[in-house]
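User: what does the whole thing look like in 3D?
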Amino acid sequence: MGFRIGVDIGGTFTDAVAISDEGRIRTAKALTTPGRLYDGVLNAVRGLEVAWSEVDEFIHGTTAGLNAFLERRGARVAILTTAGFRDVYEIGRANRPKMYDVRYRPPTPLVPRRHVFEVDERMGPKGEVVRPIDEAALAETLDGFSDNFDAVAVCLLHAYANPEHERRVESLVRRHAPGLSVVCSADVAPEWREYERTSTTVISAYIAPIVEEYLSELAARLEDEGLRSSLRVMQSNGGVMTASVALRRPIQTLFSGPVGGTIAGVAVARDLVDVIPSERLICVDMGGTSFDVSLVVDGEAEVESQTVLEGHPVLAPAVAIHTIGAGGGSIGHLEAGGLRVGPRSAGAEPGPACYGLGGAEPAITDANLRLGRIPSVARLGGDMALNRAASDAALAGVGEPLGLDAVGLAAGMVAVADAAMANAIREITVVRGIDPREFSLVAFGGAGPLHAVAIAEELEIGSVVVPADPGVLSAYGMLQSDTRHDVVQSFFVRVDDVTDESITAVLTDLERRARQLLKEDGVPDDSVRLESSADLRYLGQEYSVTIPFDVSGGVTEAINAIPDRFAQAHDARYGHSNPAEAVEFVNLRMTAIGVIPRREREERSGGSLPDPLGVERTWFGGEWFETPVYSRSDLPSGVEVAGPAILLEDACTSLIPPNWMATVAPRGHLVIVRG
Amino acid sequence: MAEGVDPVTVEVIRNSYISIAVQMNNNLARSAYTPVIYEMKDCSVAIFDREVRLLGQAPGLPIFLGGLDVAIETVLEHFGQDSMRPGDVYAVNDSSLVGSHLNDVTVLGPAFVGDELVGFAASKAHWRDIGAKSPGHAMDTTEIHQEGYRLGPTCLYRGGIAELGIIDLLLRNSRFPRGVWGDLQAQIAACRTGERGLRALHRRYGAEILAAVDAEIMRQSEELDRRAVAALPDGSWSALGELDSWGPGGDPVPVKVRVTISGDRMTLDLRGSSSQTPGSVNCGRAQTVSAARLAFKFLINPDAVVNDGTFRNLDVIIDEGSVFDARPPAACQYYYPHLGLMIDLTLRALAQACPHLVVAGQPADAMNILFSGVGGDGSRYVCGEATAIGWGASSDGDGVNAIANYGAGDLKNLPVEVVESRFPLRIHRYGLNIGSGGRGTNRGGLGVVREYETLADDSAVSLWWERTRTPGWGLAGGDAGAPGSVTITSAEGVQVVLKVDRMRLRRGDRVTVRTGGGGGFGPSSDRSPVAVARDAQDGYVPEMVDA
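Assistant: Here's the predicted 3D structure for the full assembly of 1222 residues, as C-alpha cells:
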C-alpha cells in the first residue's frame, strides 16, 4: 500500500493526514515544537502509523520563512543597488495609508540605510547599458561583507529588462564575499517598479538562510527515518514544489501555511463535484482573532500577483486572502452609548470571559455560549471547562445600559458580527464583479461553521460546506495539490505593434524556465500542463487585467483575439470597457502545472440517524428551540439532519438553524442547504 | 439611545453604511482610468440620506473630508428634488460652488425605492485634463477661465439616458478624452454601487426605522467628538505663516489661524488671512471647510468613521472674499497650498495646549513637477508628479522621512522605472535630502532629492515649489527643517527657480528638485547619544567636519 502524507504546522498543533491509494484517510496531531519544528512534524507523522517505506509522497506546509519574517529573526542582509538610488528601499512609495494618523509610522525596513550600498552602474529601460559596472569600486564595497552579512540582495534598476548587470554583480559577490547567499531581483521578481521588486528581493534574502536550514534539517531527518520519496513543499500560489527547488525560491514558501485552508477548499470542492455546484466557492476561516476570506473561481483558488505583508510589498503570486478582525475573541463594548463588536480581541489570554482566565468583557464566544450555540457538553480544546457564570455577567454588564439582558446582548453581538463578515465578503466580491449568490460557502476554523449559515443567509447563498476532518484541513488540502510554478516577464508593447516573433521569443523563454523548474521537481514531461496569460491594460492605465493567452491556435490568432477578450474581461471586472481604445501588454506569464493523479477520498457507506448526545436550548431568530446535539463522527454518509441541530466535533461546532438541512456527503463533507 | 430603535440594528446599519462606502471606493479606485485616481487616490465617495446628511464616506484624498454634500445641495437647488428620476446622473466642478479646482469633478446620482427618493451617492475624482491653457494644468493662471471648463449643476444622464451633447462637450474639450470617458464611467459605477446599497437597506428596514437609526448613529458620532474636544484644555491660541507666492513672480500669501477651545467646541478662525489672490492660490468656502475638518480629524478621533454627526462641534470662521472664500473669476488651480499651511498652523497653535497630539511643522504642499513635450515617437506626453516631503517630529519620535504631506494621504510616488519607461526622461538620483530634517530631541523627517535629465529636444518643465519662507518649524525647542529648492542646469548655466510654467528645456538639461524636511521636537541638546550615533551610521545627517 502507498500513502501520500501532508503535514501542516500550526501555532499549537502540527497536523498530519495520510491518504492511501484506496483513498482511505488517517489523521494525527502532535504538539508543535517551537525551535525544533521538525520534531513536531515527525511526532505527528508517527501518529499516523504509516511505515516510512510505504510513503510515496510527502508534502509539507512550512511556516519557517513566514515566522522568521514575523518575528524579525531573518538573516543579516546587505542591499546592493544602483548608484543614486540608495534610498529607494526606505522611501518606498511615500504613501500614508493611515491618512488621519498624524503620527503614522511606516513599516520599519528590514535593512537599515547603513547596510544599503551603491554600485556604480546603470541600465536603461530597454535593457541598454547606460554605464558599465565599476568592478574595482564594487570589490572595495564588498570588503568585509563576509563578516557582517549572511545574505545579499542585488536590486539594480531595470534589471527586469536586462539581468546582465545583476548576474555580474552576483558573481563578483561570490568571488569577493564567498559563503553569502545572493539573491538577484531579476530572479525573484522580474517586473518593473523598483521599490516593490527590491522589497520582494530583500524579504527573499532575509528568509532564505532560515528556510534553507529548516528544509535541509527536515529532509535529513526524514531520510534518517526512512522516507524514500522527495520532500515537497507547499507554495504561496497553492501549488507544491520539491524542497530542492524551494531552496532557490524561498519567497514562494512565504504563505505556505496560510493558503492551506483555501487549497483544502479546492480539494473539498472536487470531492463534492457531483453534490453541489462546487466550481465557485467563498472560503471563510474564522478563528479566535481573525476572519479570512478567499475565493475559488472555476475550481481554482484566486491567485494575486502581488501581496502585502505587514506593509512590505511582495511580488510573488499568492492565493488572495482578505482578513478582517472578527473572531471568537472579538469583544462587545460600548462607545458613545452605542454597541460595538471588535476590532479589539480578547486573544488567547485572558480570552473570552467563559475561559475563566480573568476576561471581564464579553467576546463572541461568550455570546455563542449564552445562546446555546456552543452546547454545554462542549469543552474547548477538549478539556477546558467553560465558565457560564463569568460569561453571563460580562454580557449583562455591557447589555444593561442598552436595555438588553445577557441573551439580548449575546444575540445582538452575533448579529453585528455576522453582518460585518457578510460585508467583508461584499467588499471583496464587488471589485471583481462577482455575485456571491452564485457561490457556495466553505467554512472552517474553530468558529467558522458556527456562523457560516447566518453569513450565507445574509448573502443569499444557497449552500454551505463544512469539510470532513476540519481539524487537519490544511494538511488535507496539500495532499491534493499539483506541482506548480509561475514565471513572469515584463513585456511593454502595444498590442497593435506587437510581432509574432517577439511574443514567441518571450513565451519560449518562459516555457523553458517553467519546464526547467518542473523538471527539477521530478515532474515527467507528459504530466506538464502549461497556461500562458497576459497582463493587459488600456494605453496609459496603470492597473492591468490578466487574461488567458492561449497560443495553441496560432500566435497571430491569439493576438487578434486580444482586444475583444480584454474588453470582455474589463467589462466583467469594472463594469465598463472601451473597445475603441488601444491596448498594451505589461507582462507575459506562464503557469506550469505538474498534474498529480488525484487520490479520491473513499466513499463511506450509509446508515441511519443516530440518537443525539443531548438536547440544548438554542436561540434562533428571537426564540428558544430544543435543539438536538449530535456527534458529527457518528453521522453516516447520506443521512439528513434537519435544523435546528448542532453537530459537535473536536475542531469545531456546526450550527444548523431551523429551515436548513445538513447532509453528510459520500466523502464525509457536510453540506448544508436551505431545507 | 433614541426612542424606539434597537441598539443592534443601529450597529448593523452603521457598519453597513461604512461598508457601502468602501464598496463604492473599491469600485472607483479599481476601475478609474487615470493613475491620479487609482494610484494617487485623488478621489472621494460617500452616501447621503434624502436630507443630504452624510451616512458613510470612504475618503481617498484626506483633503476631501466630508465635502460632497455641497455638490448635492447645489444640484438640488438647481433642479429640484421633484424633477429627479432613477437613473439620473449629475456633475458639478465649479470652484466657487464646490471649492476645489476644476479638475475635481463631482458625479452624483439619486437613489430611489420605487418612486421614493431615499438618498444620494456621490463621488469626486480628479480628471486629468479638462481643457486648461496648459496640458493637465497650468502653474500661472490668473482667472478661472484659463483653468478649463466649469460645470455648474449639470445633468449628464436623464433617467439613464445620456445627454450626449453635454458628454461630447466634456470629451471634445479635453486633451485626454478617453481618460475623461473612463473616469466618468468609473464614477457612475461607484454611484450605482452606493445607490444599490442604500436601496437594499431601505427595502429591508423601511424609511421609518432608518430615519431613527440614522439619528442615533449621528448622535453617537457627535457625542464622541464632543467628548474628545471637552478633554482638551480651554483657551485660544494663534499661529501665523506665509506662502512664498501665489504663483510665478507672485507675492507672499499670509495665513492666520486662531484656534479656540471652549468646552466641547472647537473654532478655527481664519480671519486676517490673505484676501483672494491674483494667482491661482484660492479656493471656495466648501473646500476650506473640508480642510478644517481634516485639521480637526488629525486631533479628534482619527480612527472614528465620519458621518453627518461628525464635526458638529467644529466652527470655521472665514472672511468673505478671502483666499479661503474666493469669488469668481478667481483662479483656483492651486486650491491646496494655503489649506496645507492652515492645517500646519492649526497643529502649531495647539502645540502648547496638547503637545501629546501634535507634530512639528512640515512643508505641507504637493511640490509638483510636470514635464511635457514631444517624445521620440512624435507623440505628446505629460509626466506630472507630487514629491514627498519630510514630516514633523513629535513627542513620540522622529519625523517620518520622505512621505506624502497632510492633504495627500495615500498618494504614491511614481516609480523611477515607470517614468523612464514611459517618458523621455532619465532620473539620476532619487534619495533622501540629507540634513534637511530639523534638529531636535526628536529629529524632523528628511525630504527627498530627485534629479531628472531630459532626453528629448522639445520639452518643458513646470514647477510648483513652496514653503521656503515658512519651512517646517520646530516645536518645544526643536529646529526648523531645511526648505526645499530647485535648480535647473543647462548650457546657459544654473538657474534657481521655485515656480514656473512650461520653461523650455533641451536634451541633456538637468532639473534637481529637493523637498524640505520636517521640524524637530525638543532641544537638540537632549537628543539621546544612541539616536545621534544611529543618525551618523545611517547618514541621515551630514558628516561632521572638524572646525
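In plain terms: The two ends of chain A are 42 Å apart (CA to CA). The mean pLDDT of chain A is 91.
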